[in-house]
Design brief:
proton-transporting ATPase activity, rotational mechanism; Four Helix Bundle (Hemerythrin (Met), subunit A); transmembrane; ion transport; V-ATPase proteolipid subunit C-like domain-containing protein; about 75% helix; transmembrane helix
Amino acid sequence: MGYEACTTDACNASYDEVLTHLSPYGWGYMGIAFGLGLSVVGAAWGIWLTGSSLVGAAIKAPRIRSKNLISVIFCEATAIYGVILAILLLSKIGDGVKGKSEYPEDWNYSQFYFAGYSLFSSGLSVGLTNVASGISVGIAGSSCALADAQDGSLFVKILIVEIFASALGIFGIIVGIIQSNDADYPS
């Protein structure tokens, strides 16, 4: 029972066959999963960065505890962007023709696959943007807590930098909405 050479056509499949033989609904749901999952990872990472610095700096200056919780809220916003995108993309999928084993002769397969690829790319790009946004907000929030513990007048100045970092997530969801704008599964 040694190695046998593959001589069937199934062994010679190309990448375009793999990409077109996965269900467009599968591509859409994978995009939703990546968008939501990576957004939550970005938020958690940012909260971890901000929270650990906040707790450490609050030992020196307990006055910063409640004021710097705004940094945690900015981190949490990236997860909310992922939830918003997931709701929007789920509404694009709709009921459609899921579960049918045969499609009509005049079925528009290009529209069907375009919708799946569009939702996948939208979810992936928003998820990756929100990871970057969560980390940058976490780093800025950490700096804000440490600076506020040293000098209370620095809080607002560094909070503005944190707002700019949070804007990355907003830009990501705008791009994701534009990417999925023309994605309509045929019914």
